[in-house]
Specification:
homodimer; Pnp Oxidase, Chain A; 5 helices; 38% strand
Chain lengths: 215, 215
């Protein structure tokens, strides 16, 4: 996939930072499960954070079947944003300060996953992508849990990425000024896991816990 | 401030996690400059990441005067979300897996800052909040830079926070299962600053660079 931008996905500002290729878009979606979902409810915009996961050319998110966000998104236009915040870019003028980031915006109609087996397969994929091997270690999903869960999916047909990296770009005249400029890189770090106090004696965290990373 | 929730800000799901007090809301906004702004353009929702900063009971965000996002948001209903992603919560069943987070949703009409001096004051406040003492170290702002910048503000009158912390809460029957459960804490870390290669010899990063933190 390297789709031509649509009116909604064509990056207007600093468009040399725009990316429309599948590899870049997938890598950003796979790096950061936290997303925000934008939707319109009663005529006004809402933005709700939730976790997304990708399978092929779709992303999914889920929650309680009673969720207002999921109800409001179902079968309607949404915009999903995933942003990895990579750093503060400090220039010699306030104007040229910036951020480094990797961001994806995906537009389209959110579709509900209705088939029971498809729902379970999607949830398994979510768990396995975050924590390989975990699904089969867990207590099996109950039918009432599946019923209480709504999953929405969005096909990645209208999607763009915007990426900024590197140092500040100052006005040529400003490079001679005695002002420090540079980048503060930012990174999401997974700290050592904390056992639940009721974890049975002798149980240690599986390998997927120590290997978990974001960004 | 500890405003009663409105129809839009009343947290519906897991409402024991809802917070409406000013101290909680301000602390989250002050901890994480990255936000997403939700707005409606041509009838469909958009979500755009940008930096926000808070002054008193307002948040602000800014960008190029040519920005589609800023133009579309001006004098219309927006929803701004700030989310600090604090951890993965791993339970004994897939269903009880969760995230720890601190999140704010603010609704209202975005107002453009039009007065020249007010614009400069807002930009100074942004720089000073991120990097105390930096504004006066920088090359002074040019009039054309001020003109090329649009700043939008949102009064925090319709706002809620939702916070989850702590370990997994499993079904009572599941605590006896030999399944590891716990939390992987996540933290945004500022790595050592990288000097711009054109920084003049002998210049070192000011104190505000080393002290910068997020989350």
């Amino acid at each position: 996939m390297s789709k031509a931008p649509t009116e909604r996905t064509r990056v207007k500002r600093v468009n040399e930072n725009a990316k429309y290729d599948e590899a870049t878009i997938h890598a950003i979606l796979d790096a950061q499960p936290m997303c925000t979902v934008g939707y319109v409810f009663n005529g006004t915009p809402y933005v709700t954070p939730t976790l997304q996961w990708r399978e092929g050319n779709h992303i999914y998110w889920h929650g309680s079947a009673a969720s207002r966000m999921l109800e409001a998104c179902e079968e309607t236009q949404v915009c999903v944003n995933v942003t990895v915040f990579d750093g503060m870019v400090m220039a010699r003028s306030a104007f040229e300060h910036s951020c480094n980031y990797r961001s994806v915006m995906a537009f389209g109609i959110a579709r509900k996953v209705v088939d029971r087996d498809q729902k379970e397969a999607r949830l398994k994929a979510m768990v396995e992508q975050l924590f390989p091997g975990r699904w089969d270690m867990l207590r099996a999903m109950k039918e009432k849990e599946l019923k209480a869960t709504t999953i929405l999916g969005l096909e990645l047909n209208e999607v763009s990425a915007k990426v900024r990296s590197g140092g500040p770009i100052d006005d040529e005249d400003d490079y001679g000024l005695p002002i420090w400029a540079g980048v503060i890189p930012l990174q999401m770090v997974a700290l050592p896991a904390v056992d639940d106090p009721r974890t049975l004696a002798g149980l240690v965290a599986p390998e997927h816990v120590g290997k978990f990373k974001i960004g």
